[in-house]
Design a protein that fits this description.
Length: about 270
C-alpha cells in the first residue's frame, strides 16, 4: 500500500511540525500526531464491500465528524483514480462534543474507524485510491491530507471486529417524524425542529442539525426537552445559488456521552 501525507497549513506551522518521510505516514516533533489506514474489510453476499478508514490520533489531539461545528474543520474524501469502484459511502460513529474558545466542535478525541460501504463495478478486486483531507487540533489546528493506494480484495476477510465495532457505534435510526417551522429573519432564517423522542441514556444531551448537500450554514442548536418532546432551534444562512432550502433532506442527530439517535426529513 502506498501512503503519502501532505501538510496544508501555514508556513509557521510547517516549521513547527516538519514532515518525516512519506512512507512513515505521520507527522513528528516529539510525537506523531495522526496516522490513517484503509482497512481491507470483506465482500458481502450481495457483491458490495465493507472497508474502514482507521484514524489514530496522538494523545490530546482530535479530529472531526461529518458536521464539525463552528469550532471544527470539515473532513473531505475523494476516491478519484480508483478502479472498479462505483460508489463509496462513509458512515460516521457516534461523535463527542467539545468546547474551545466559546465554540462547539463535534468529533473524535481518540482513535476511530469510519466504516465504508463500497459498491464495486464488477466482482473483482477494488483498487481504492483514497484522498482524505481532515483537520487535527490541539493547541493549534492543522489541515492534513493523506493519500492511500489500497487493494480491497474480493476474497477473504480482514479487520472484521474493528469494522463491525464501528458499525455498532453508528447513531440509531429513530422511527419518529420531525416537525419543522421556518421563518425569515434579517440575517437568513430561523428554524425550529421538534420531535417526540424519549430521553437518551448518558449525559449532556444535545443535537446537531444538518442539511446534507446544501451550502447552508447552520448554527449550534438551542436544545430543549419537555418530557418526551425535544426541540432544536437554529439560525441558518443560505449560501447556495438556489433560493430554495430542501427541508425534506434535513437530518437531526441527538447526542449524549453514550448514545446517539438520528432523525431525518421534515413534515
Amino acid at each position: 500500500m502506498k501512503r503519502t501525507v501532505a501538510l496544508l497549513a501555514a508556513p509557521l506551522m510547517a516549521s513547527l511540525l516538519p514532515l518525516v518521510p512519506a512512507a512513515a505516514q505521520e507527522y513528528a516533533t516529539t510525537e506523531s500526531i495522526v496516522q490513517v489506514e484503509l482497512l481491507e474489510g470483506w465482500r458481502e453476499p450481495d457483491g458490495s464491500h465493507y472497508a474502514g478508514i482507521q484514524i489514530n490520533l496522538a494523545p490530546g489531539w482530535r479530529t472531526y465528524w461529518r458536521a464539525p461545528g463552528d469550532g471544527g474543520i470539515p473532513t473531505r474524501v475523494s476516491w478519484e483514480g480508483s478502479n472498479n469502484l462505483k460508489d463509496a459511502q462513509i458512515h460516521w460513529p457516534r461523535p463527542g462534543v467539545f468546547r474551545s474558545s466559546g465554540m462547539r466542535s463535534v468529533g473524535y478525541d481518540e482513535s476511530v474507524v469510519l466504516p465504508v460501504h463500497v459498491a464495486p463495478e464488477t466482482s473483482g478486486d477494488i483498487n481504492a485510491q483514497l484522498t482524505l483531507t481532515l483537520g487535527v487540533c490541539k493547541d493549534i489546528c492543522i489541515p492534513v491530507r493523506v493519500t492511500l493506494d489500497q487493494t480491497l480484495p474480493s476474497k477473504g476477510a480482514a479487520n472484521i471486529a474493528m469494522i463491525n465495532g464501528a458499525l455498532e457505534a453508528l447513531p440509531e435510526k429513530a422511527d419518529a417524524s420531525l416537525s419543522c417551522a421556518i421563518q425569515t429573519t434579517e440575517e437568513g432564517y430561523k428554524l425550529a425542529v421538534s420531535a417526540m423522542l424519549p430521553e437518551l441514556d448518558g449525559r449532556g444531551e444535545t443535537s446537531v442539525v444538518e442539511l446534507p448537500g446544501q451550502d447552508v450554514w447552520i448554527s449550534e442548536p438551542v436544545f430543549d426537552r419537555d418530557e418526551d418532546w425535544i426541540i432544536s432551534t437554529v439560525r441558518m444562512i443560505n449560501f447556495s445559488e438556489s433560493d430554495q432550502i430542501d427541508l425534506d433532506a434535513l437530518r437531526m442527530t441527538v447526542l449524549t456521552t453514550t448514545s446517539a439517535v438520528e432523525l431525518t426529513g421534515c413534515n
